[in-house]
Amino acid sequence: MALDTNGIDFRVATPEDAPGIYRLVQSAFRGQISEKCWTTAAELLSGDRIDVPGIIAKIKDPSSAMLVVTDSDTTGADLVACCEVSRSTAQQAYFGLLSVSPGRQAGGIGKQVLAYAEDYCRQIWGTRRLELTVVWTRTELIQWYIRRGYRKTGEMPFPFEELGMTKETAPRENLYLDVMAKDLGGASGVVDEETP
């Protein structure tokens, strides 16, 4: 499933993409560059968001896919954005790791990636519901997903161990994840045209 929209190409990642995905995710979620981005969690978390073997595992898992975005007018070596989708049940999938290169944020690429992921899950897996999680402190990001048609459906514990920390070593108390979901049975695409 390939798509070319406004000068960017969408495709399913291969294992060869793993190092580029790793660099992209790190730049979007961690480090000094990410601190300028409205979607970052750099003030809460440090270290790797995911490592290269973890990315390769997601790429090779038949119940998941890493979707990547490149510039149409380049050789495709540099990734502009990426995300992960994984099939939870026959009719539900999970969306995560939405990463847009810091220099390309606030240009609407995130909306396109989310819409592409929704269409991918609907067309490839027959998904009727897409779920995601957001750290509850990321209020601007939560509102962005709400504008895309997602609604809060509950909460779940923060994955301290998965991120190499404990409640005691976390930079903030009372961290948890908001669970959000959207019914994909209707029309595809975004709810509005508001950037980012």
UniProtKB/TrEMBL annotation:
The record's listing under InterPro entries reads: Acyl_CoA_acyltransferase (IPR016181), GNAT_dom (IPR000182)
SUPFAM superfamilies the UniProt entry points to:
Acyl-CoA N-acyltransferases (Nat)
Residues in N-acetyltransferase domain copies: 8-185
Q: Could you give a GO molecular-function term held by this entry?
A: acyltransferase activity, transferring groups other than amino-acyl groups
Q: Indicate what this protein is called per its UniProt record.
A: N-acetyltransferase domain-containing protein
Read off the CDD domains from this record.
NAT_SF
